[in-house]
């Protein structure tokens, strides 16, 4: 029996790679420093795998920026617009592709399946030439062998590589997916050469990742599967085909007939695949069972996993391999330094290093009997017991409240058409009202004050004063600009999820639980471990203070239940829907309290609503149904004349418009400026019933567009949105901008709105 991991996080336990990258980019380190750091991290991670008793050192999972980019370069697919020569990509060229240079914008970035990891999208053309440049991978293999580890090389499979690429220059009217698939005959020979080169280095196993098998693929792609792996079948090298993130059960009969030597299944996301494998996967091939959650930070219930593994062990014996469900890229590195975490909660967690150790325990327990691993298993049992019985995890009052939810709790008192009459009477806003999305520039002063307060260096009273000063400034600026609905500016918030998580029960925070998001950028998702409740109001004081400074309407600002869920490490002992409902109820209390404090407009941000969509279409309806319901529960405790806003900052809505409408926010603000209002067409065709604020300028850029530009966009918006339902606002919050450009852009925005009013 063997143990292995599909991949290991490369950023380093102390984010060493991040800091080395950033020093390199700033020109603060000698050119050789970054590659040295990379080598050191690779070696350290292989040593961790060896110390945990893993049978392979996974090779090829490391990258200075992104492995999809590395594969594109390895196949000679350098985006033509950069003018670089395939095979001659030094660090300067590499980072130009990843981050852009003076002449060219960076390669596009997009999320890796339903994770928060972003990969760079290869840019291909219909007559794409591929060529092999595998020195980097072969060098890594040599590094492993020099240390007498056993390498298992990892590759992204040809179907996944092509599916996730973009193809440019496809003739109008022809199918993009087809055009990409048509590149297969050009690409497969390169894979063959690569496998031959690995074979020549005496690599015994290569793991080929085909996570696209977890998606709804067009029939032509499914049909290509046997051909691809029959073509690749090398003479000596063994192929482990790795799948993850969803069930691939439908492909099992085909896979069983292919000349591959092993198959990895994600038995955490899709445990029922085990039964299918028992029926369909040959016993003389390797089955790699992904039984340790690679996407989350919970310690495994080892006893339960052993029960799951026993029938597999009985069938595959030595050919059963144990692994995390997917690459550990999506997990933080090491729990050991998290000494400030509540020891109780800490005991329930496992980061990557701990997960490797869990594999070892499982292997020995299967091979030598559970008695041999009694200490580790008993510790796992005790952790499970403590988690199940903790009063922090199970709050009967929270459970009771969720069970008592009625249909009416998810409905406003009256339909939008009636609410709007009351809101107009109360708010008395001009036509095309102007507002912003919530945050104002987070000046250095604000950041320093927050950090000092957090470290206990700034007394609470002084901190309050400084925040109130920032709020006051934001209000004065907005009044001077002539905005209609104001915001307090979010100076007191470090992060839109963490800020609320810190005030809710059921949340914990790590010091170093970083996960790579893209390149050198990492996120540190809070840990949602227990029932969620709101002990005391979270934003009411700040909002009331802000409202007290102005006669205009002050908009309350909250993060919605779906986004709170989506951007946290969420407990695995309760369905996500239930967790969303708990969050919704906590937020509902906040919304009601804001209303009681005289706040007439309340925005509940849901920027992560769309990214919660399951990978398979068949599962969309269920998710959308509970996600929209959770939002409505948070928003529906208020009177008809209180106006609920929501905000989403992306521009792919068309396929989920009915669910956006089902959220029933009185106003939704969305990102549109970069798509020149194109996306509004969907809202128009669908006849979206409530009010919309299409972003009229891109906040991601310091550029200050002039009023005419925004006016032109607004005129376009008027073509699809009725005049009395159109708002005027930027694309997103302004916290990353400076005051200079913010002032300039908003002045032009207000000017544009005023000009539009004269056209009525
Ligand atoms: N209210 C938040 C802000 O303005 C919204 C951020 C977001 O959409 N991601 O910063
Ligand atoms: Zn946004």
Automatic annotation (TrEMBL):
Zn(2+) binds at residues 647, 649, 671, 732. Residues 373-398 are annotated as: Disordered. Keywords: Amino-acid biosynthesis, Metal-binding, Methionine biosynthesis, Methyltransferase, Repeat, Transferase, Zinc. GO terms for biological process: methylation. Its EC number is 2.1.1.14. It comes from the Bacteria. Its cofactor is Zn(2+). L-homocysteine binds at residues 437-439, 490, 605. Signal peptide: none annotated. Coiled coil: none annotated. It is an enzyme of class 2 (transferase). Pathway: Amino-acid biosynthesis; L-methionine biosynthesis via de novo pathway; L-methionine from L-homocysteine (MetE route): step 1/1. It catalyses: 5-methyltetrahydropteroyltri-L-glutamate + L-homocysteine = tetrahydropteroyltri-L-glutamate + L-methionine. Binds 1 zinc ion per subunit. NCBIfam families: met_syn_B12ind, PRK05222.1. This is 5-methyltetrahydropteroyltriglutamate--homocysteine methyltransferase. It comes from Piscinibacter gummiphilus.
């Amino acid at each position: 029996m063997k143990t292995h991991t599909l991949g290991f996080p490369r950023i380093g336990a102390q984010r060493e790679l991040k800091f080395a990258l950033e020093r390199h980019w700033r020109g603060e380190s000698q050119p050789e420093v970054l590659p040295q750091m990379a080598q050191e991290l690779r070696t350290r991670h292989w040593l961790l795998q060896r110390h945990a008793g893993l049978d392979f050192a996974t090779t090829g999972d490391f990258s200075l920026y992104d492995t999809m980019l590395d594969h594109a370069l390895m196949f000679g697919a350098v985006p033509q617009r950069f003018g670089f020569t395939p095979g001659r990509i030094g660090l300067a060229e590499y980072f130009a592709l990843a981050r852009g240079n003076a002449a060219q914008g960076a390669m596009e970035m997009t999320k890796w399946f339903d994770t928060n990891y972003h990969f760079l999208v290869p840019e291909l053309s219909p007559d794409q030439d591929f060529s092999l440049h595998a020195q980097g991978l072969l060098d890594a293999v040599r590094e492993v062998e020099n240390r007498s580890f056993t390498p298992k090389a990892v590759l992204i499979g040809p179907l996944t590589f092509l599916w996730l690429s973009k193809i440019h220059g496809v003739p109008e009217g022809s199918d993009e997916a087809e055009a990409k698939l048509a590149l297969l005959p050009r690409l497969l020979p390169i894979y063959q050469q690569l496998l031959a080169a690995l074979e020549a280095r005496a690599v015994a196993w290569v793991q080929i990742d085909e996570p696209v098998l977890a998606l709804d693929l067009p029939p032509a792609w499914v049909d290509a599967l046997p051909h691809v792996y029959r073509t690749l079948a090398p003479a000596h090298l063994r192929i482990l085909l790795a799948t993850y993130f969803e069930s691939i059960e439908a492909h099992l009969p085909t896979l069983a007939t292919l000349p591959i030597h092993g198959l990895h299944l994600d038995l955490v996301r899709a445990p029922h695949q085990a039964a299918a494998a028992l029926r369909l996967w040959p016993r003389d091939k390797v089955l790699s069972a992904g039984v340790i959650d690679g996407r989350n930070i919970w310690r495994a219930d080892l006893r339960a996993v052993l029960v799951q593994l026993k029938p597999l062990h009985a069938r595959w014996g030595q050919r059963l391999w144990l692994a995390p469900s997917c690459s550990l890229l999506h997990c933080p590195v090491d729990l050991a330094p998290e000494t400030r975490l509540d020891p109780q909660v800490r005991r329930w967690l496992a980061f990557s290093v701990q997960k490797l150790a869990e594999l070892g325990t499982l292997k020995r327990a299967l091979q030598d009997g559970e008695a041999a691993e009694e200490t580790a298993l008993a510790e796992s049992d005790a952790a499970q017991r403590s988690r199940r019985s903790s009063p922090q995890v199970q709050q009967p009052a929270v459970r009771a409240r969720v069970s008592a939810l009625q249909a009416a709790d998810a409905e406003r008192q009256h339909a939008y058409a009636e609410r709007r009459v009351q809101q107009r009477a109360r708010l008395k806003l001009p036509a095309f009202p102007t507002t912003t999305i919530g945050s104002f520039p987070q000046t250095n002063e604000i950041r320093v004050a927050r950090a000092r307060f957090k470290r206990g260096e700034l007394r609470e009273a002084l901190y309050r004063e400084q925040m109130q000063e920032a709020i006051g400034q934001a209000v004065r600026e907005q009044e001077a600009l002539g905005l209609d609905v104001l915001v307090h500016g979010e100076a007191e918030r470090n992060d839109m999820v963490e800020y609320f998580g810190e005030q809710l029960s059921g949340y914990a925070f790590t010091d170093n639980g970083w996960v790579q998001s893209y390149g050198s950028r990492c996120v540190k998702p809070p840990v949602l471990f227990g029932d969620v409740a709101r002990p005391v109001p979270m934003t009411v004081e700040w909002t009331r203070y802000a409202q007290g400074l102005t006669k205009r309407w002050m908009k309350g600002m909250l993060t919605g239940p779906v986004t709170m869920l989506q951007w946290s490490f969420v407990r695995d002992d309760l369905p996500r829907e239930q967790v969303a409902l708990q969050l919704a109820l906590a937020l509902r209390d906040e919304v009601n309290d804001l209303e009681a404090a005289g706040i007439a407009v309340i925005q509940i941000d849901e920027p992560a609503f769309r990214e919660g969509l399951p990978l398979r279409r068949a599962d969309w309806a269920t998710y959308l149904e509970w996600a929209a319901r959770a939002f409505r529960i948070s928003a529906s405790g208020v009177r008809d004349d209180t106006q609920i806003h929501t905000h989403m900052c992306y521009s792919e809505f068309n396929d989920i418009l009915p669910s956006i409408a089902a959220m029933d926010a009185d106003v939704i603000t969305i990102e549109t400026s970069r798509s020149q209002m194109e996306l509004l067409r969907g809202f128009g065709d669908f006849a979206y019933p409530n009010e919309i604020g299409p972003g009229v300028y891109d906040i991601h850029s310091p550029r200050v567009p002039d009023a005419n530009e925004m006016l032109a966009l607004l005129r376009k918006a008027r073509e699809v949105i009725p005049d009395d339902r159109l708002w005027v606002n930027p694309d997103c919050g302004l916290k990353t901008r400076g005051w200079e450009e913010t002032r300039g852009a908003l002045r032009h925005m207000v000017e544009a709105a005023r000009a539009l009013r004269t056209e009525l």
